[in-house]
Amino acid sequence: MDYTSLLWRKFSFPDPIRIRRCQKMPELGPKILFFSGGSALNKISRTLKHYTHNSIHLVTPFDSGGSSARLRDEFTMPAIGDLRSRLMALADETVLGQPEVYKLFNYRLDKTGSLTELKQELIRMVEGQHELITPIMEPMRQLIRTQLSVILSRISANFDLRGASIGNLIIAGGYLNNQQQLDSIVFLFSRLVGALGTVQTIVNSTYHLAAELDNGDIVIGQHNITGKEKAPLATPIKRIFLSESPIDCCPIKCNVLLDRQDMIKNADLICYPPGSFYSSLLANLLPVGVAESIKSNPNLKVYLPNLGLDPEQLGMGLVQQVETIIKTVSGESTMNSKGILDFLILDSRYFNQQATSDIDTIKSLGVDILVAPLVKDASLYYDEDAVSQFLVSLV
Description:
By secondary structure, the protein is α/β, with parallel strands linked by helices.
């Protein structure tokens, strides 16, 4: 790639022309691609859909906690919880959408109900008698009932349905009913909820996330890394990798799917977003082909860091975060950000808290810094509208 041929423009924020254009015609909005998973980006995604219907969200299928873990254990399948969660964030919530389907897919079974009661509720859904099923029009109602019927017939007698997401069960049923092909059921799910954007897993593998710590210990399982379901790690993470086994350390490589490569190569803007740094962001960069696709895209790449405490970032400052992203994509120890990361985006107050030496070090890596008021007053949370307007102003 000859980067000397690139043309750059003056950037201003807010850019009223680009913002108004996107608000008026979001169906023609920019293809902003996020490497993410988890729920950290959901609020921003829910706002961004008012500016573009073409955002792309590549999420990890390596989650090993919560109700997703139960489905993974039961059917040896990719994790689908983050996939469902992001699709719901992008769902069309206007009168043009499907509010009855949206409500059903967001519904969870009672966390305290008995196995018998929860199975009976699922049976009522399959039979079309549940109050959340009856308002849904055909043929969508039959499609949903079919997927739930598959799940009901396949789960073991002691499968724990407490707190189970109906959306997850529908996707899992479709996965099992379509020769374990995830993409086709994701497409159907997207159409059912009227998703105003594209959501895909980075790969459709059943592998597990693993981490090597600075002290040499190996931790397997996303839920053991995030510090949310289990106690936070006491030793910093040195690197992450994929394991074929959820129990034993069996390192394995996998290839990113070809259509995902095309999405990355053709995105108008690539954003490394906030969220669990290793298990949500960097995990998406592990499959073979992702790094080359990023580097072959000549458009801007930006990093929007976490504001609050991320247990996975133990001992990491901004410099280390930027360096880790660059090293993960480059695969080299030398620090060369060209084609990998152009800008670090910082909120004004957050920027003022950073040491001058850290800012200088980041700039010396070839990463410039863009500063804007992006945080809600007196909080540690991004203003979703400000971030959305900032991102579309960049394109």
